[in-house]
């Protein structure tokens, strides 16, 4: 019995010993697992030192397990936070990469976090990569907005639908759709760049076309002398005639309807130009006629007019070419008139001096010039000035001859005045003036001879002649050779009749209208009868 009890006690003891050994082994295994887990967490989190870490081998197994438990709990919590941080950063990286790739509309799987490396260094690497992607996203978004703004301006200038154009590139670029994020993918940027390039090229072509139309409009307006009111209606077309592509920024400045409007106007003016060509050509011909008239150049205007009408009626010449040719003729005529101006001014001064000479001759032959009549003092002053001017005539003629010869040598043609060679006019005037001077000397000699005979006859009767003029010898004014008493050219020359007898009556009549008319009270007398009336005090102009 005792042996049985002893055996039972021994069995119980063995069981207790085995239970204690198993319990201790389990505690040791749990402690070992806890330490392994602790090391794994510390390694994953990259912690070099951990506050509150229990000392190895201090205390019982349960005490060691109790000491490790809070540290493990803290590390697990830290690991969960670190995993969440890494997951958030990686999710943002994935999202930005999807936006850049153009797959932002597709659902992406949650970012897989590598729990074996949750160190701060790894997290910093993720954050650096995220910042780089965020900067790239910002740059791309800025570039997209720049493209959108450029497209908006170009569509405004071209009069195109901006919303429709931008939506074709990507729907997210339209703010009215309510999409918060705009596409920044490579494909969107490429399409935006192509759209901007195409719109810019379209703008360049439209501006070039509009400038050509504006140039044609101005040429047609100038050709047909279009009033300023009608021109102002197309100021929006002509204002950009010299502008560069970048300078045109006004909305609708290059709209298609504006270009079409300019085309219609150019076509209308072209048709109107053809119908008004004769009127324009005759207006140019009148301008040319006026230039030649002022320059005293004779041309056959009727033949020129008939030639113009024949060219227009035949349709063998472009209206613009005809007008350009007439403009060239006008320019050459102006140049010719300018080259003749100095000589013509001298001719006018010479003719004015000759008119004064003619007036002075008439004045000196008037017996009543010294009477106290109304305006007599004015005639006296004019006579004084006329005498000074008449004395300058020979120098004027010589200077005019020299200038005319120099002009003719330079040009190789004869200088004509209303169709008459100017040198011939001057030579004839010099001859007539010389003849007149000889006639005056002959009359003076004849007068001296008559006075000498009269003195000798009266001396025989013992009386002297009265210095007063005999009552029956009152002087009357007679006609002058070539329309002037002193041989002045009288705005034309008798050479016209000798050298140009074959000219038309119209031309002779026009030059005859330039003749200085003799006073209305002139009475024709013979040269012999007028000899006795020449006053000894009359001035004798110097011969040329």
Write a brief caption for the model.
This protein is mainly alpha-helical and 544 residues long.
Walk me through this protein's architecture.
The chain is mainly alpha-helical and 544 residues long. The protein has 16 helices and 2 strands. Strands 1-2 form a two-stranded antiparallel ribbon. A hairpin with a 2-residue loop joins β1 and β2 (420-421). It is rod-shaped. The protein starts with a helix and ends in a 14-residue tail after the last helix. The model is unreliable at 463-488 and 490-544 (pLDDT under 50).
Strand content: under 5%
| Strand order in space, largest sheet | 1-2
- The residue-averaged pLDDT reads 75
Judged by helices, strands and strand pairing, the structural class is mainly alpha
Keywords:
544 residues, mainly alpha, two-stranded antiparallel sheet, 16 helices, disordered C terminus
Task: Summarize the helices and strands and which ones pair or pack.
Elements: H1 2-45, H2 61-101, H3 120-158, H4 162-169, H5 186-224, H6 228-232, H7 235-238, H8 256-294, H9 301-314, H10 319-364, H11 376-391, H12 393-411, E1 416-417, E2 420-421, H13 422-461, H14 495-499, H15 505-512, H16 527-530
Antiparallel strand pairs: 1-2
Helix pairs in contact: 1-2, 2-3, 3-5, 5-8, 8-9, 8-10, 10-11, 10-12, 12-13
């Amino acid at each position: 019995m005792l042996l049985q009890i002893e055996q039972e006690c021994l069995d119980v003891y063995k069981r207790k010993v085995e239970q204690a050994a198993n319990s201790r082994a389990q505690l040791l295994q749990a402690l070992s697992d806890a330490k392994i887990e602790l090391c794994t967490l510390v390694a994953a989190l990259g912690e070099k030192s951990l506050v509150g870490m229990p000392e190895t081998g201090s205390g019982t197994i349960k005490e060691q397990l109790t000491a490790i438990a809070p540290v493990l709990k803290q590390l697990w919590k830290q690991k969960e936070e670190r995993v969440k941080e890494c997951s958030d950063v990686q999710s943002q990286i994935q999202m930005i990469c999807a936006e850049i790739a153009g797959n932002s509309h597709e659902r992406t799987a949650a970012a897989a976090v590598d729990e074996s490396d949750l160190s701060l260094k790894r997290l910093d690497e993720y954050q650096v990569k995220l910042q780089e992607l965020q900067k790239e996203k910002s740059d791309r978004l800025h570039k997209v907005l720049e493209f959108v703004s450029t497209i908006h301006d170009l569509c405004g200038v071209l009069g195109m639908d901006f919303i429709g154009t931008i939506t074709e590139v990507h729907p997210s670029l339209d703010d009215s759709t309510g999409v918060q994020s705009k596409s920044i993918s490579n494909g969107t940027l490429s399409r935006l760049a192509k759209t901007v390039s195409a719109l810019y090229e379209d703008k360049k072509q439209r501006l070039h076309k509009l400038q050509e139309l504006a140039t044609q409009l101005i040429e047609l307006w100038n050709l047909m002398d279009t009033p300023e009111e009608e021109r102002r209606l197309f100021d929006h077309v002509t204002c950009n005639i010299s502008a560069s592509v970048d300078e045109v920024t006004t909305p609708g400045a290059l709209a298609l309807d504006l270009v079409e409007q300019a085309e219609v106007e150019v076509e209308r003016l072209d048709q109107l130009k053809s119908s008004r060509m004769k009127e324009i050509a005759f207006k140019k011909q009148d301008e040319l006629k006026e230039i030649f008239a002022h320059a005293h150049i004779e041309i056959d205007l009727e033949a020129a007019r008939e030639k113009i009408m024949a060219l227009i009626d035949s349709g063998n010449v472009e209206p613009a070419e005809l007008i350009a040719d007439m403009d060239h003729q006008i320019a050459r005529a102006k140049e010719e008139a300018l080259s003749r101006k100095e000589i013509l001014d001298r001719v006018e001064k010479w003719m004015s001096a000759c008119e004064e000479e003619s007036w002075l001759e008439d004045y000196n032959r008037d017996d009543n010039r010294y009477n106290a009549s109304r305006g007599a003092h004015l005639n006296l002053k004019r006579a004084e000035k006329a005498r000074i001017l008449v004395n300058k005539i020979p120098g004027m003629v010589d200077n005019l001859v020299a200038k005319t010869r120099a002009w003719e040598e330079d040009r190789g043609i004869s200088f004509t005045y209303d169709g008459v060679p100017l040198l011939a006019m001057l030579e004839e005037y010099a001859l007539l003036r010389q003849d007149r001077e000889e006639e005056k000397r002959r009359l003076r000699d004849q007068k001296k001879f008559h006075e000498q005979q009269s003195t000798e006859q009266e001396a025989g009767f013992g009386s002297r002649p009265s210095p007063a003029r005999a009552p029956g010898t009152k002087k009357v004014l007679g006609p002058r050779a070539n329309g002037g008493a002193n041989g002045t050219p009288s705005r034309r020359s008798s050479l016209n009749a000798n050298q140009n007898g074959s000219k038309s009556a119209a031309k002779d009549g026009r030059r005859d209208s330039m003749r200085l008319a003799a006073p209305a009270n002139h009475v024709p007398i013979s040269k012999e009868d007028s000899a006795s009336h020449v006053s000894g005090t009359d001035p004798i102009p110097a011969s040329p």
